[in-house]
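Q: I'm writing a short explainer about Redox-sensing transcriptional repressor Rex for a general audience and would like to include a description of its predicted shape. Could you first generate the structure from this sequence?
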Amino acid sequence: MNAIPEKTIERLSEYRRTLLECHAQGIQHIFSHVLAGIHGITAVQVRRDLMLIGFQSDTKKGYDVEVLIEFISSILDGKNVVNVGVIGMGNLGQALTKYFNGRRSKLRIVASFDVDPQKAGHRIDGIPCYPMADFEELVQKHDIKIVILSSPTSIASQLVVPIINAGIKGVLNFTSMPLNFPRGIFVENYDITTLLEKVAYFVKEAEENSDSSSE
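A: Of course. Here's the predicted structure. Afterward I'll give you a sentence or two in plain language.
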């Protein structure tokens, strides 16, 4: 199978989350237009994404929810559990850890790291927190492949070299500073401030357009 586009991977993850919720509610089949409506896209896009990963099904009753969950999981998940570390255990890091841990059987947060001595050496939400000075050694020890970066933006650039040296393969960056890594390390920069300002802009535009049309 050829490389799947990033946007398709994102939608497959979203589909699976919806399908898991449907399965928990006892829903056995779902049509492409229903799945599309939940995600604000077209049924054509849903069918295109599923065809791209080779999924075929008799859609007279809609997609079999359980079968589709298993098929998407076979695409998204590896055979082995992937260990994840969190760098920065402030309010955001703790919230991310609490929300995410245990939600996916193939992804597991096994360690966190912080420069604050009041956090390092303790367990936070059941996850051991270590000093950043031990980062590279503990990445190897715990076989950590991915890090979630939730440190203060002011020190984000200082973490690039330790992450590279430790052999990390993927970075989910929640700081407001976009970070670049060499080929072989996949990075997703997730800037909450920019996204919130984007939403605020479109809210402003909608309100201004509404005001002008009412004049």
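A: For your explainer, you could say: The CA atoms of residues 121 and 177 lie 28 Å apart.
Q: Perfect, that's easy to follow.
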